Structures are given as C-alpha cells and as structure tokens.
Amino acid sequence: MGEQPLKIVEGSALTGQQKKDLLNRLARIEGQLRGVQKLVALAAEPSDCDAVAQQMAAARKALDRAFVQLLSASVVTQGANAADVEEARASAARIAALLEKFA
Measured between alpha carbons, how far is residue 57 from residues 2, 53, 63, 73 in Å? Predict the structure, then answer.
C-alpha cells in the first residue's frame, strides 16, 4: 500500500516549483532519518554510535538547509507578489520574525 503523492496547492506563499523542490528535499531527509533509525537499531559497538552521531548531524544540517530554502523562497515569492511596498515590507517583517524565532 504505497503513499499517494501530496497534492500541491496553488497559492501566494510559494510557487508550485518551490514547493516541489522543498518536498523533494524533505523526502531525502526522511530517507536519511530512516537510515539513522536502522543504524541505531543495529548499533552494537561504541564506534557504531560515532556513525549514528555523524548521520544525525548530517540530517540536522539538511533540515537546516530546507528551513533556509523555505524562507528564501518565501522572501522571493511573497515580495514579488506584493501589491505595493507596504505589503512587501509586511511580508519581509513576517519572515524576519520567523528567522528571529526559529533560527
């Protein structure tokens, strides 16, 4: 029973291509995390923990890059779609607040 692909909804937050790119990146990260789970399950020696830690750090970095990709795409798309300068400023302020809160 395979999963159905996600339906990409059109909107003004991100373009369809930006969403597709981000979803592909997240799918790769999901695969990395499945690999980490297998490493944890099979860990038998202290050196195995080193490998687990290395793969966890790589997955964390990949997720950080996905976060930056999301915010970068948001800046570009929402700024371009703004009706006027005030709307563009408000969009930039929202994204800056996300950076302050989560980065």
Answer: 29, 6, 10, 24
Q: What is the mean pLDDT of each run of 10 residues along the chain (103 residues)?
A: 80 93 97 96 93 96 96 93 94 94 90
Q: Give the domain extent around 76.
A: 16-102
The alpha carbon of 21 is separated from its chain's Cα centroid by a whole number of angstroms, namely: 10
Domain count, the chain: 1
DSSP 103: -
Element (H or E) spanning 33, and its range? helix 16-42
Q: What CATH number should be reported for the domain holding residue 92?
A: 1.20.58.1000
Going by C-beta distance under 8 Å and a sequence separation of 6 or more, which residues neighbour residue 66?
22, 25, 26, 29
